Amino acid sequence: MKWDDIQEMPCSVARALSIVGDRWTLLILRDSFMGTKRFDKFQKQIGLSRHRLTDRLNKLVKYEILRKVPYQEKPRRHEYRLTRKGVELYPVLMTLAKWGDNWMAGENGPPIEYFHTACNHQMSMNLSCSECGEVINPKEVIPKVGPGLKAYSESVRSK
Amino acid sequence: MKWDDIQEMPCSVARALSIVGDRWTLLILRDSFMGTKRFDKFQKQIGLSRHRLTDRLNKLVKYEILRKVPYQEKPRRHEYRLTRKGVELYPVLMTLAKWGDNWMAGENGPPIEYFHTACNHQMSMNLSCSECGEVINPKEVIPKVGPGLKAYSESVRSK
DNA sequence: CACTTAAGTTCCATTTTAGGACTCACTAAA
DNA sequence: TTTAGTGAGTCCTAAAATGGAACTTAAGTG
User: Fold this and answer.
1) Strand D: which nucleotides have any atom within 7 A of a protein Cβ?
2) Kindly report the CA angle at B28 between B77 and B4, in degrees rounded to 5?
């Protein structure tokens, strides 16, 4: 199976990873969320080759996760900003960060801490139910076949 | 920068990705959460080469995200089960899935839907604040230098 | 004019990956 | 008692992805 094929899988995790699941893309997005917008800054902060960075940024623009916004003419220069679609990857980054904090931080503790201005507390983030608001326990969540998978199975069967 | 070097970065996202941020690992874990435990089953469901799978499973065992549990002797066979550390990757998978549902599902809708037995509703998952319980708005979260980053800067400066 | 900056490109050597064939230890079927 | 099958790998080679350094373009600076 080639990497590009996983985009076809009837699985939202696979489809998301087909865009964001390579070596560097999530690190680029981490920097985007921290305010980085320009090519050289990404390159220095992340330390990947310029070649790769060009590639990844173009892919993110193609999939409308970042967009190029000109910030000067003569010479024409532009910066990369998160779109709505990009901003919605925030939970992915934050859950990764939390797991890293919990399991990979080492003796010095987490590198970054988070402060919630809405309630004035240092905090961490949990998953909660959109309906009842309670914190999620994985055992209380049951995955069921949804319309996308049903349609897929039918289309496979009819071949 | 080599891939292995990102583990040294003072960033929890980078450290988490150094383990789960390659082409296949999160797909393996997705299957683990869906109940898959055996080599061949992973291989068939994901469609990666056996060679890669061996590699990835060993890495996950090494980092104590999965553990090998024997289920028969003669010949000795074992299955791969999530550890506590592994189970705590649940939010990462679910936030990826939600993003995929929202942005990559296509006209047929999401392949999987989720049902919360605690409240008896079909639901999706949000990030909420550990302190006040409110749903998180990224703009209301301020990252601050934590102890891990402070220790790191000091150790760099003293060189 | 020589130097610098931002944002890429080009080239080449090295790494990683995909996919198929092969192995090993055992069990079940003919 | 050969034959086939299964689970879990290992080995090999060609193809793809990557890292690093040097080069390019279009300005602006001293």
Assistant:
1) 6-12, 17-22, 25-28
2) 105
Q: How far is CA A97 from CA A20, A111, B16, B108, in A?
A: 16, 10, 7, 32
Assign residue A37 the CATH number of its domain: 1.10.10.10
Give residue A142's pLDDT: 97
Question: Which of A95, A117, A144 is the mutation pick for testing B, counting most B CBs within 10 A?
Answer: A95
> Are B59 and B134 contained in the same domain?
no
User: Which one, of A97, A98, A79, A91, lies nearest residue A35 by Cα?
Assistant: A79
Percent of chain B with pLDDT over 90: 84
Q: B116-157, pLDDT tens digit by residue?
A: 999 999 999 999 999 999 999 999 999 999 999 999 998 877
- CB–CB of A46/A31 below 8 Å? yes
Domain stops at, among A45, A66, A87: A87
Q: Where are the alpha helices (DSSP H) in B84-140?
A: 84-87, 90-104
Check if the beta carbon of residue A21 is closer than 8 Å to that of residue A59.
Answer: no
Are residues B58 and B100 both part of a single domain?
no
CB atoms inside a 10 Å sphere around CB B73 = 7
Residues B113 and B57 in one domain: no
Domain of B152, in residue numbers: 89-159
